[in-house]
Amino acid sequence: MTTVITINQLTRCFKETMAVNQLSLEVHAGEIFGFLGHNGAGKTTTVRLLNGVIDPTSGNMRVLDLDPQVDGPALRARTGVLTETPSLDERLTAWDILSIYADLYGVPKKTVKPRISELLAEFDLADRANEKVGDFSKGMKQRLALSRALLHRPELIFLDEATSGLDPVSAHHVNELIERMARREGCTVFMCTHNLVEAQRLCDRVAILEHGRLVALGTPAELTRQYVRRLDVEIEVAEEQTEIALKVLRSMPQLVLGEPAQPNGALVVTINQRDSIPDVLASMVQNHVRVYRMAPQEVNLEQVYFTLHEEKEGVQ
Amino acid sequence: MKARAMLAIVRKDLKVVIQNKNIVIPIIIIIAVFFIGLPWLAGLAPTIIHGLGGQVTSLEGLLTKMPAGMLQELAGYTISQKVIVFVLEYMLLPLFLMIPLMTASMLAADSFAGEKERKTLEALLYTPTTDRELFIAKMLSGWLAAIAIALGGFLIYAINVNAAAWSLMQRIFFPNALWLVLVIWVVPALSGLGVSLMVVVSARAQGFQDANQTAGLVVLPIVALFYAQMAGAIFINTSILLLMGLIVWLMTGMLIWLGSRSFRRNRLLAG
What ipTM, to 2 d.p.? Predict the structure, then answer.
């Protein structure tokens, strides 16, 4: 597996504030990598560091086998960045902006016009190409900024809150495009986001940042297994055995937390960890309870995020 | 250096500036007052004074205090012609320098500080331009615009000066060698100095107004030059202009060299 980004003990301080604190991670070619964290967690600073736009206080990194501090211009020619704010000159037209940035990114002159037309059509902006950006809606600006980031067909793209401010249809369209870039075109996507549902659905792996420090790294499934210990399990037993089942469950307070609920006839219990499920089942069977179904409810990235956040706040 | 990328920045800046009322309106006012209003006021003044029964000779006292070099230049003219030549060719000469300097400074003040204010800078910093290319392109935008305005303004001024003074001069007397040296040699140098100085200031300022306040200070030496010429303390002739241009070119060169060596994009976002 080719590594596209290698970060080792990366630290960046702004006066008293430590924006990025000893960050170490790797991003592999072709993956959609989610970079999650609260506002001010250090996501944007990391993107700036990885593109050689600001220098680190300490630590080192390699991006596309280049050192951002030394080879910034060569690196930026191969990356595309969608900034948190669209960063568009409102007095210029969409076409002006894309043609100026095509020159800045060195898009071959012959391909500039077809490439701009292709992107404007792709992002549903072709009809507004010659209108000033100041008249665009927030969603249109975001789509234009995204097309600018893709102009030169980057190998690695950084998306800082790509779907923020977009309506559901546009957001869905952008997400489809992100998936297509990674899955079909082999582009690596480094995606900073607050949107945990989006991250869960799109990302191959995610890193969670808290106050500049990496607190979790892995696939969404790995993280849910690792960090969310408690989980709700739905148990379906024979109706006449509900009382016995409840007695059995109440007899295991170390495994079954709290009082079981009974919505829609089935029992829903909170179990202390995934590994306790076989023990609970065994105990039911030993007590002659006929179990028809035992279904752990799916844990999502949101629960991982809040578990980590609560742990961190608890420590502080 | 990537010329195509630098020209793209110049193109972008000029397109944005043309649509910025905060910059365009002051420039139009300056052009209207200086290149059109003043020539007609000065050119018609002797005729108006005569018409009102006044005497232009009262200005002769002022001219006698001028340096010998200037008096020599004015020899052979009638008193009305002397007034016109003195005002339009000599008195307003230092003032003309303020135009490219002010324009260049205003445009350069907008370069980084304006982009920061409009939140458009970050996308530019993520492009594959080097720090030096970014600095020089930003400088070029202001410099080219200032020179274009100065040359255009000079043409407008020349037409208006000759037209306004035609009844008294009866010939095309403007421009003289002094003005040609000024426009071809000194104006580009001074614009370059103003621009390079202001790009450095703009990179450190938080907004356009912040940078533009400093731009106002850049014209102070020119105002001093204007008063010195008015008071007869100095007489700006061709040799002085050539020397002045050389000094300014050297200062500009040094500032560009220092600026392009010390300019770092990471400082623009490091706050």
Answer: 0.83
